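Z., the sequence and structure:
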Amino acid sequence: MTHKPLILVLALAVIGGGSARVVAAAPPVIVKILTGDEVVESDGSQSAIFHVEKLATNQSAAHNIAQYTLEYSDSMETVEIIEAFTRKADGKVLQVDQSKIFLQAPPGSPRVPKFTDRKQKVIVFPDVNAWDTVVCTFRRTGRPLFSGQFFSGSVFPRNLAFEDARMNITLPKAMAAHVVVESVEHQTAEGEQTITHSFLYRNPQPLPAKAEALSPWDTEPQFIISTFADYSAVATAYRQLAEAKAAVTPRIQSLADDITAGTFDRREQAHRIYDWVSEHVRYVAVWLGKGGYEPHDAASILDNGYGDCKDHVVLFEALLKAKGIGSVPVLVDANNRYHAPEVATPALFNHVISYLPEFDLYTDSTAGVAPFGILPATEYGKPVVLATEPTALFTTLPLVTTDANEEKMQTTAQLMADGTVSGRSVTEASGPFAVRLRQLAANVEARGQWQWAETYFKNLGWHGMANFQFDTPRDRLGPTYTFSASFDLEARPELLEGKAFAPPEGVRMLVRPGEFLLGAWTLPKTTPVPCFSGHQIEELSVTLPPGRDIELLPKGKTIENAFLRYHSEWTRNGQVVTVHREMTARLPVAVCRDEIRAQLADAVALIRGDYRDEITLKPLVQ
């Protein structure tokens, strides 16, 4: 599913330096004017006129704003360019030639194939230089995604300069609209039959850009307007689009019987059906007409052999229904949006998974490699709505537990007398870690093992080769998954001559203990981050060549607070040096902020320091 804000204006903010003191430079792009006047009809259709004026304060920014893109659904919307021109710094106006407005298909990702009716009109402005302004006025009309309902909103990044951004949305009084704003002014004006909601935002002196781990919708100024009374109404509207698609036809019944042949255990039947859908229905993004919200019917999904998340859910539901097992569509965000606004909007959700009430189990077959009852890590702890009959349930997905999210990576390496290194790495994972490990194995499989290994070691600053041993990642979706690799690395004779080094990691498929679970390591401790419970172990051992000893064995470290325990230990057994690192995280929230975040960040700093411990070789004294 997808939802676009009214206008998406992208630019960069910079800070410059003066000779005597640091001063704020002019923002590269200033949005001088951004206006929208939108009229909504009682059926939810809408028509709007937008006007945008953007000024570039340097030549590079001028190059960026010299092209403006408007994306829309060809079957649901129309976009008409009313005027477009460049206003030079001296006031001269250069009109855009109509032949310089290009109709294109939007760029897609080769990793996520798309079947879409989305188009984009690209406006190429003439002769845009520093201190010029590009001006565009266009009309957009659209049919409703949900009959009789309307929802919209815009987010305004704090690091972008807006001198005057105004949005006016007029609805019939009979369409009661709910509004929430964050750092945006909101006013209303009543007519005889209508009510107009006006939103005003100004930010002429933007803050420096900073990295965030959460969606802009969780952190930035914004407004949201929606006629949905609550999230139950959102789920009901979705169910009305999807319910009939999961009909049990004779073909569906026959397939369900074949998949479950030989077992009468209902959970095992559900498990087999889930595995079949995961393996046989290829994921593609389908954005045709109402395709952002309306799934296809189960029969056509079978015919095609592919579908998006909604199609996966529909086919899974139909096959389960054929065996008398109930399932419920669950609307969720698959990215980094964790906050549910008080105003109910379908835009909160961009993904659909399934809930099986009989087993109190959530499943997501879209990933193709997620075992039955295990979700990708980023879905845990998210606000969701279950499209149940007769009323929907707005709730939060459970958090992943420590014991259900484990990873162990073990590398045994040997440093040869000529400085070459050979060894073997084994990674075993369960829970969300297993989902990620299967995804990475699929990437190795798709790219080719030799090509993957060459790139991997090159990124580490080595030349090396590897041979891999792993099961087909999409087959037999058991709760654990193991990936192994044997490797050989180029000679590094300097290691034999006293250069400090850490035991070789070999082929590391997943992250080191503490990474990911504790959130982004590079962000300030005041920045909220998604975080996860889990258990990680890495054990790296290296056999020293004959005639070599080590100067000093590192001491290791223990770090512990209310939310985690990290322990490292170095040992030596003859010529074998081993470092064992283990971390356990038990977090009560999906997003770590304030005191929890501060404690995690303090621990991360110590853990990163522990990773820098090294050994140094010296001649062995007999």
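The longest helix spans residues 594-611. The CA atoms of residues 233 and 332 lie 15 Å apart.

Let me know what you think.
H.
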